[in-house]
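An instance as discussed:

___
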Amino acid sequence: MKTLRSIVAVFAMITTIAVFAADVATLKAKAATGDTVAQNKLGWMHYHGEGVKKNRKEAFKWYQKAAKQGNAKAQANLGWLYSNGKGVRRDHKEAFKWWKKPPFKAMFQRNII
């Protein structure tokens, strides 16, 4: 019985890894076409090391691409990276620049009120 559980567990793990790898490939393809949701998600995955190797500079790259196109969540994430010096040189002026953008401000106000 233990052997069967072990086999099932290994199969589930291999299947999950394969599905996740396909999801990463799909996200990268969408991000390459300018999909800001995919770009922001790739930034998050790289920042946290979820499904990809942890790489804060790569996270910065993806957040920045989405933020420049007006994605409010990416603007928040990019501001946070600048504020904390994660993947980029710490720069509070630059952080506030992103946090003052209209899409981020609108998202923030909707969540507060």
In short: Residues 8-19 have pLDDT under 50 and may be disordered.
